[in-house]
From TrEMBL:
Assembly and binders: Tetramer of two alpha and two beta subunits.
A GO molecular function held by the record: ribonucleoside-diphosphate reductase activity, thioredoxin disulfide as acceptor
Binding site for Fe cation 1: 70, 101, 104
InterPro entries found in the cross-reference section: Ferritin-like_SF, RNR-like, RNR_small, RNR_small_fam
Name of this protein: Ribonucleoside-diphosphate reductase subunit beta
Alphabetical GO biological process terms: deoxyribonucleotide biosynthetic process
Transmembrane segments: 166-188
C-alpha cells in the first residue's frame, strides 16, 4: 500500500507496519510526553523584572509568533497531511503530533499567564507587525490550497501540492523559523536568565526535532514512491521556497531585536537562520546556498539530527530516527 491515498477503509490495520520509521517516531513521541505545569515558571519572574525593555520585547515578540502558529501547524496537519496518507502508523504519529502542538500552545499560554505580558498586544502582533504577518500569509497560502480547492492526490500536480505543503510547514515553519525562535529563547539561559523557561523550550525543541524527522521522512517517501514528481522545475521551486523563507525570517528578526541585546543581535540570528537553511537544503539533497557557519554551537544537538538523502534519489532506508535533540 502506498503512503498516499484517501481511502477511508484503507489503513485500518497497524500490523504489519509498512513504514517502520513512522512507528519508531510514534513510540519516541509517546515516551517524550510532558506537561507545561511540570516547569515552575514563576521562579523566572525575578529575572523577567530585571531584564531590559529590549529583552522583554524579544520574549513578547516570540510569544506573539509562536502562540498562533502552533495552532496553524495543527490546521496544516489536520487538513493538509492526515487526510492524504494511508498508513495507520503515520496516522498514529500525526495524532500525537497534533496533541503536541496543542501542548506547545498551552505552554506559551502558560508563559503569557505567568509573566506580566500584555496579552492583547501580543495576540495582535501577528496581524499588525508586517514581518510577522508576511510569514503567516506565506504559510496560509499553502494550507488554503489544501482546504479550499480540490486536491486530487492521485495526480502528479496533487502530489506536488502535498509536498509543497510539507516543505512549507515541516521544513520551513518548524525546521527553520521555529528553530530560529528557539535559539533566541534559549539564549537567555546562556546568560543565566529564564532558566525554567529554557527548560520548557528544551522540551518543545525535543518534540519539534521529531516533527522535522517525520516531515523529512514523509517527503522522501513520497518522492521515492512517486519519482515522476521530482522534476528539475519542481526541485528548483522547492529550493526557492526555502530561500524566500530566509528573507522573510531576516526581516522578522530585525523587528524581533531592533537594537540588539547583550550577546545577540539580528545579524547574529540571521547568520544562524542561513546556517539552518543550508542544513535543511542538504537534508532535501540540495547544495547549501549560504555557506554560513553556526554561530550558536550550543544549539548544534538540536540542529544536526538528520541524515542527508538526495532529493532525486530513492529514500535511504537506514535513515535514523532515534537521535534526540540534546542527547
Amino acid at each position: 500500500m502506498p503512503i498516499l491515498g484517501t481511502g477511508i477503509a484503507e489503513g485500518l490495520l497497524l500490523k504489519p507496519v509498512t513504514y517502520p520509521w513512522a512507528m519508531e517516531l510514534y513510540d519516541q513521541a509517546v515516551a517524550n510526553t510532558w506537561f507545561p505545569n511540570e516547569v515552575q515558571l514563576g521562579e523566572d519572574l525575578a529575572d523577567f523584572e530585571r531584564m531590559s525593555d529590549d529583552e522583554r520585547h524579544a520574549l513578547t515578540f516570540l510569544m506573539s509568533y509562536f502562540n498562533p502558529n502552533e495552532l496553524l501547524v495543527n490546521k496544516a496537519l489536520a487538513f493538509g497531511v492526515y487526510p492524504y496518507v494511508n498508513a495507520a502508523e503515520c496516522h498514529l504519529y500525526l495524532a500525537k503530533q497534533m496533541w503536541e502542538e496543542a501542548n506547545h500552545c498551552m505552554s506559551f499560554e502558560y508563559v503569557l499567564e505567568t509573566f506580566p505580558i500584555d496579552r492583547v498586544a501580543a495576540y495582535e502582533s501577528h496581524v499588525n507587525v508586517p514581518s510577522m504577518a508576511a510569514k503567516e500569509a506565506f504559510e496560509v497560502r499553502f494550507i488554503q490550497r489544501m482546504t479550499e480547492q480540490t486536491l486530487d492526490i492521485t495526480t502528479t500536480a496533487g502530489k506536488q501540492d502535498f509536498v509543497r505543503n510539507l516543505v512549507a510547514y515541516n521544513v520551513i515553519l518548524e525546521g527553520i523559523w521555529f528553530y530560529s525562535g528557539f535559539m533566541v529563547a534559549l539564549s537567555f539561559r546562556q546568560r543565566n536568565l529564564l532558566r525554567n523557561f529554557g527548560s520548557l523550550v528544551d522540551w518543545i525543541v525535543r518534540d519539534e526535532s521529531l516533527h522535522l524527522k517525520f516531515g523529512i521522512n514523509l517527503i522522501l517517501t513520497v518522492l521515492d514512491e512517486n519519482p515522476e514528481i521530482a522534476t528539475e522545475e519542481f526541485a528548483a521551486e522547492i529550493r526557492q521556497m526555502v530561500l524566500d523563507a530566509v528573507a522573510m525570517e531576516e526581516a522578522y528578526n530585525r523587528d524581533l531585536l531592533p537594537h540588539g541585546i547583550l550577546g545577540l543581535n539580528a545579524d547574529y540570528i540571521n547568520t544562524y537562520v542561513r546556517y539552518l537553511a543550508d542544513r535543511r537544503l542538504e537534508e532535501l539533497g540540495f547544495e547549501p546556498h549560504y555557506g554560513a557557519a553556526n554561530p550558536a554551537k550550543w544549539m548544534a544537538t538540536a540542529n544536526d539530527t538528520l541524515q542527508l538523502v538526495n532529493f532525486f534519489e530513492s529514500i535511504n532506508t537506514s535513515y535514523e530516527v532515534n537521535a534526540r535533540a540534546g542527547s
